[in-house]
Amino acid sequence: MLYSKHRLAATGVLSGTRFRMATARLELAGDGRTAELDVTNVHTRAPVDGGLPQWRRELALLARGASTEGNGLLLGDFNASYDHLEFRRLVTPSPGGVGLVDVGTAQGARLVPTWPQDLPLPGITLDHLVTSVSVLSAGYSVHRVAGTDHAAILATLSVPARR
User: Fold this and answer.
1) Which pLDDT score is estimated for 117?
2) Separation of alpha carbons 47 and 25, rounded Å
3) CATH label of the domain that carries residue 25
4) Segment holding 76, helix H or strand E
5) Whole-angstrom distance, CA of residue 141 vs CA of residue 112
6) Angle 85-103-17 from CA coordinates, rounded to 5°
7) pLDDT tens, 88-126?
């Protein structure tokens, strides 16, 4: 789900995904300037039990959608870590591409686990905040949330205003 204290307008749902991935535009106003942030609520299919092809398609879909100009944020359960080549491709700038930034990595917290939070197992980082390069980040932290096996991620993002 997406919540905001700022104006948030639904812009659609990514098609071709197993789980509903809503998209929205967040409008931030202040000091006589306005900034916009295109947000995608991510939940890819897990790459297990026959789900690998769908998971790959969904990560490719996210990469195509995020390669447009402007300020973007992909947030949620990617069911992927840096151990997955497909995720590394998503956050590695390609020739002629705009590139994306994994906020956890940018803030030195790439290996802070986000799942599972409810089992006595070593965790992995499946949940991410991924931004366009124009969006800067600070203050990244991971927090347990009662009643879920995924952790919450909190970060401060600086979104540049329109010119």
Assistant:
1) 87
2) 29
3) 3.60.10.10
4) strand 72-77
5) 9
6) 55
7) 988 887 665 557 999 999 999 999 999 998 888 889 999
- What is d(CA 50, CA 7) in angstroms, rounded to the nearest whole number? 39
Tokens, residue 57: 């398609």
**Overall number of domains in the chain:** 1
Tokens of 32: 């006589």
Q: Are 61 and 26 in contact (CB under 8 A)?
A: no
pLDDT above 90 for 29: no
| Length of the chain as a residue count | 163
Give the pLDDT confidence of 39-53 residue by residue, as tens digits.
999 999 999 999 999
pTM of the entire predicted model: 0.91
Does residue 1 sit within a domain?
no
Token representation of residue 115: 């799942």
Q: Which domain holds residue 85?
A: 7-158
Is the preceding omega at residue 47 within 30 degrees of 0, hence cis? no
From the centroid of its chain, how far is CA 88? 13
| Amino acid letter for position 158 | S
DSSP conformation letters of 127-141: EEEEEETTSEEEEEE
Tell me the CA distances in angstroms from 38 to 75, 106, 151, 159, one per residue in order: 11, 20, 23, 11
